[in-house]
């Protein structure tokens, strides 16, 4: 299988970090992660580096690291044209640069300079090199606040030193965690950026902000809109896997039906299969785009519809149900027909970036997930903060801090009416929309809802198969951003 | 001399940290600082402690410390009455509690709970104990951002756990550096505090924000309004001290005229006398209150008027000029007649708190000061960042970071139109008003000017000798704060 790095996968890992279902996988080191392969694109940019302090908030450590950023100035009006600044997520910035077509389409229209700034500790922007993850002291500067400070300083330096940029308006763009960063950058440094497009940024997903069932409920709804029978079948299948998973014979049946690379030996192995399936369904809801696309896996347009195909008739027989489910998920992991078998532990070899996001999820990014089996199609699971905390300590020798998350994120989260000039866009198919801003807060804090949209579909290159609401979202965003560039700041 | 701890002295030390005049004193360890003596007051409060993380911004260090805070609930309406929260400055919080009479006068009127929170590393709130200053690694958590996080978390915890406080409005109060903290608390945590009174908070004094001559120009103007001849005499006196300081005979003359405890032995000693005099004049402008008060020293009402008395006639003769100047400054250091002699190095025994503010001035609080001898009455001096940086490194093994100060403070400084609900009050006699917000920025960012006011006079207990503009300032503040408490939030 051709694994692709993508922000969805990375971001999605949260659900594993924080769900009881996945405690086992957390212990193994985020096994669902994949290695990075960058998609080629035709976008032309230059690569540059800027020396940043490793610790912006203390003065004892004077170490520096080189932050990578990508520059495309071919569209730029050097007499004060705006700067579009992508606030890099948890991954290699070249991937985000190549997968944020909306910025590339908008730049020529507004004569903008494009900057894609890499997030510290990812890609080629590595304080303390590739081994940082092994040492909690070297890893401690991996925080969103430090990353925001990097971005703010880089923007100030660019404006000070790039001829023509002194008075340029700066618009931040970001999706997913990058969308949170874009929003927070405007909230924390309102004089460094003039406005932000925060696409699919679940800034209200933090502990205490929404019920932990919310994400999987959206996943369920995204399946339900294709087929309520599909949902019924999936809900039923967990019990069947449990029953089969309890015996050698049953596990053999599961192993052959799903074409597993390795036989399920224990009921825990059957649990891993369930975790994998949950993850697949979560991912599908994130990437349910109207046209074929390659993210976690190469997928057809409207992949949930395709996946639900074999599950759209009620299946009573247990074995028949498992066979239908197997057919369904093969749409996901074997759309190209290249996969010989399915390794539910295939991602156990995590890359550095994967482990690092795990660290963030164990520190600041505490976004609980659980299920109740009623409003969602999954087995009921609870969210247990202490257990998560213990797992985090085992892996990273650190613990998440509930009160800090609440204090810092609440301020940048639930009640942000004092902020301005932020667009929050959310596709309603996307599980992360459950923690997004779905209602405009003020005339300058605009929510854009995309009913047929998956995870920050609006940041993607426009496509003839885009639904009208996707197209409309991009038009509205363009209109608002044009206003910011002209100086209609509130 | 009865030395009193006060925020003015503490804050004023900046001028020494950053002025060339005072490089020598910096090297000696902030010799102008005095030991702490707390004034008794009749205010009744309880003392409490709250366990805070030492590092809010990283997760590797899980150490905690006990933050002290003072609570007065005798006026409080426990059914949702507001919380008045003093954001502690660089010193023992009991001093600020006892010297912020305005809060005590306002609390019964608005049925408020009073909280005075101590700033980390000062008073009894000591991460790593009294020896922290010796170790840059232990001192690295002494930053305004960490202190703000302490305040925000403490407020959240109080609201969560104090019956009746859940829905209380929170108003932050602070003066001087504490005023900056009050303003920044509202800017950074707008959902934790509903409004802030930032009294004499020079949030625009940071490097690159105002000309470095600005402070001493205000000092000069505060003297000029009493007597322009006084200013002329003072300006002339530096040359006379230089001439006398160059010879043994001249130094002996200076030593006897100023009743120095120790003979001036070198021309560098004469330089120390000049530094001391500049400091006295700076302090006088800060504490030029209409009524007798005891801060740095016990002083009469309108002390500058008293000091300028002996200097109000033009003095041509050098020796006569020095004698007049000596008489003038004795108003300052010997108003009570108790001092036997003047020790220009008397403050060389700095307390822990003094050294710690020096650290802050060497890291984040980079506020340059200089003089030109034209718009001010001092010898021309330049501000040399590299020299300051070298001195800081010598003393603390750290260096200030120009670009960080600009990025972080600019965002929280010069252009804060996106913020709301902050009162910036400034007395125009106060040198720190030069870096204050003197003009309202929006309907909810209100500047209050007190032409006859010194350093945050409005936070002091009302006094029959208060000038009408001082009284008016407090009335306006009360009116605005009442609005915030009622919920007229913008």
Polypeptide structure, described:
The structure is a homodimer of 490-residue chains. Chain A is of the alpha/beta class and 490 residues long. Chain A has a domain at 20-208 and 407-486: Alpha/Beta hydrolase fold, catalytic domain (Rossmann fold, 3-Layer(aba) Sandwich), CATH 3.40.50.1820. Chain A has helices at residues 7-18, 23-27, 93-98, 101-110, 136-139, 144-161, 177-188, 214-224, 228-245, 248-257, 267-286, 303-308, 318-333, 352-363, 385-396, 402-411, 468-486; strands spanning 46-53, 64-72, 83-87, 113-117, 170-175, 195-199, 293-294, 298-299, 422-427, 445-450. In chain A, helix 6 (144-161) crosses helix 7. The longest helix of chain A has 20 residues, at 267-286. Chain A is globular. At the A-B interface, helix 5, helix 6 and helix 16 of A face helix 5, helix 6 and helix 16 of B.
Please identify the oligomeric state: homodimer
Overall pLDDT score of chain A: 87
Computed Rg of chain A? 22 Å
* CATH architecture assignment name of the domain at 20-208 and 407-486 in chain A: 3-Layer(aba) Sandwich
The count of DSSP E runs of length 2 or more, i.e. the number of strands of chain A, is: 10
- CATH fold annotation of the domain at 20-208 and 407-486 in chain A: Rossmann fold
Strand content of chain A: 5-15%
Q: Please write the string of helix (H) and strand (E) elements of chain A.
A: HHEEEHHEHHEHEHHHHEEHHHHHEEH
Structural class label of chain A: alpha/beta
The pair of chains with the biggest contact is: A-B, 46 and 46 residues
Largest sheet of chain A: 8 strands, mixed
Instruction: Identify the CATH class of the domain at 20-208 and 407-486 in chain A.
Output: Alpha Beta
CATH superfamily of the domain at 20-208 and 407-486 in chain A: Alpha/Beta hydrolase fold, catalytic domain
Helix content range of the residues of chain A, please? 40-55%
Tally of helical runs of chain A? 17
Q: Low-confidence parts of chain A, pLDDT < 50 over ≥5 residues? A: 1-40, 348-352
């Amino acid at each position: 299988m051709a694994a692709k790095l993508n922000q969805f996968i990375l971001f999605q890992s949260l659900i594993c970090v924080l769900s009881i279902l996945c405690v086992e996988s957390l212990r193994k080191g985020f096994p669902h992660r994949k290695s990075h392969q960058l998609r080629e694109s035709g976008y032309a940019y230059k690569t540059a580096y800027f020396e940043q302090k490793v610790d912006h908030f203390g003065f004892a450590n004077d170490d520096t690291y080189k932050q990578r950023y990508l520059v495309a100035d071919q569209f730029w009006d050097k007499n004060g044209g705006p700067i579009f600044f992508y606030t890099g997520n948890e991954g290699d910035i070249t991937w985000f640069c190549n997968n944020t077509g909306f910025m590339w389409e908008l730049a020529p229209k507004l004569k903008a300079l494009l900057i894609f700034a890499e997030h510290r500790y990812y890609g080629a922007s590595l304080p303390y090199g590739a081994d940082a993850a092994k040492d909690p002291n070297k890893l401690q500067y991996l925080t969103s606040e430090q990353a925001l400070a990097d971005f703010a300083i880089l923007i100030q330096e660019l404006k000070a030193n790039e001829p023509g940029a002194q008075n340029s308006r700066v618009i931040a763009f970001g999706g997913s965690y990058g969308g949170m960063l874009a929003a927070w950058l405007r909230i924390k440094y309102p004089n460094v950026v003039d406005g932000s497009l925060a696409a699919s940024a679940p800034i209200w997903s933090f502990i205490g902000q929404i019920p932990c069932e919310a994400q999987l409920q959206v996943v369920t709804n995204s399946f339900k809109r294709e087929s309520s029978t599909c949902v019924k079948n999936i809900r039923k299948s967990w019990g069947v896997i449990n029953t089969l998973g309890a015996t050698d014979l049953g596990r053999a049946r599961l192993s052959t039906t799903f074409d597993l690379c390795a036989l399920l030996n224990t009921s825990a192995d059957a649990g891993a299969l369930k975790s994998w399936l949950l993850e697949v369904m979560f991912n599908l809801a994130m990437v349910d785009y109207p046209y074929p696309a390659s993210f976690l896996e190469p997928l057809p347009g409207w992949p949930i519809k395709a996946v639900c195909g074999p599950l759209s008739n009620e299946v009573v027989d247990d074995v028949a149900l498992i066979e239908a489910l197997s057919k369904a998920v093969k749409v996901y992991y074997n759309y190209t027909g290249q996969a010989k078998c399915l390794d539910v532990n295939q991602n156990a070899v995590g890359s550095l970036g994967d482990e690092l996001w795990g660290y963030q999820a164990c520190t600041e990014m505490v976004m609980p997930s659980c299920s109740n089996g009623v409003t969602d199609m999954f087995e009921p699971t609870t969210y247990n903060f202490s257990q998560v905390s213990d797992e985090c300590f085992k892996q990273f020798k650190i613990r998440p801090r509930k009160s800090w998350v609440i204090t810092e994120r609440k301020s940048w989260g639930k009640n942000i009416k004092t902020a301005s000039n932020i667009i929050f866009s959310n596709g309603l198919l996307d599980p992360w929309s459950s923690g997004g801003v779905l209602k405009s807060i003020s005339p300058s804090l605009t929510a854009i809802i995309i009913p047929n949209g998956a995870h920050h579909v609006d940041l993607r290159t426009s496509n003839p198969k885009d639904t009208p609401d996707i197209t409309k979202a991009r038009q509205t965003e363009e209109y608002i951003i044009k206003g910011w560039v002209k100086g209609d700041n509130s």
